[in-house]
């Protein structure tokens, strides 16, 4: 019956020809899109397509130590009540808090840090001069300085004095950052040991105009050579991790310009299994999406991230040693992302 119907369509109706031509066009278009890197249904892919994929480029990394760590403490935070900060450092350091720092002043100070023959922002006084005093209130800059002892993780409260009458930082787009917290090394000898000389954290603090909860907007690490690295997190599920994350600083082996960085999870013990094979432990981070989700064997089998489907440009390896050599909270794992 079906054969008779097809023969009848072939002899008397042009729909048959239109259908065949359309089907051939769709199959050809899907194959071309698949070769160009676009997602197509699995049934339209050739059996040897996986073997023809180009290997994911490996980003070269160099390990270094970041002596600074800064987190928001528990409890409510606001302009009127202040903010609780929880610093942790490998060396004695100074915590300086700049309330209401002008956006343009901070950007100019960071640009000056990257220029040759300009003093590095390695001390609170140099940062204060680079900002040209364009902030509303500065906490713990003048003597006596608040020195955070090595390994100390106690909480520190910073706030704007009530007599200044500051309740908000203006409408959007704002011209001032609510809070800029800076960690610098307290001892001159330590500045000669560590390549990273300052950690700068911009924090949103809720006020009368904007009630969004307090959070870290972005973080920068400043080096003694004039480079600046933005810290960004890696994305990895906590399922299967045997212990909480720890971190340490990593930077590219070749640096023509400043690179961005993201925080990496500790891999000591048994980490999360690869989302593809479910057998080996995760030890590869995909860039630029920063998902840590695959192992060595599976990273070369995909052009797209298995989690977010973003195109994979590079990857780098998370080695077990990185999680085992940093018991101190001031040590951080950082990985560059383009």
Span between termini: 62 Å
Order of helices and strands: HHEEEEHHEEEEHEEEEEEEEHE
Tell me the overall shape. Answer: elongated
Helix content: 10-25%
Give the DSSP E fraction (strand runs of 2 or more residues): 25-35%
Largest sheet: 9 strands, mixed
Q: What average pLDDT do the residues reach?
A: 75
Global structural class: alpha+beta
Number of self-contained structural domains: 3
Poorly predicted regions: 40-45, 47-51, 141-145, 240-270, 321-338
Radius of gyration: 27 Å
Fold and architecture overview:
The chain is of the alpha+beta class and 338 residues long. The chain has 3 domains: 2-51; 62-226, no CATH class; 232-338, Herpes Virus-1, CATH 3.30.40.10. 17% of the residues lie in helices and 27% in strands. Strands 4, 5, 6, 8, 9, 10, 11, 13 and 17 form a 9-stranded mixed β-sheet that branches. Strands 2-3-7 form a 3-stranded antiparallel β-sheet, with no helix packed on it. A hairpin with a 4-residue loop joins strand 10 (215-223) and strand 11 (228-233). The longest helix is centred in the N-terminal third of the chain and has 21 residues, at 15-35. It is elongated and about 95 Å long. The N and C termini lie far apart (62 Å).
Keywords:
single chain; 338 residues; Herpes Virus-1; nine-stranded mixed β-sheet; three-stranded antiparallel β-sheet; elongated; disordered C terminus
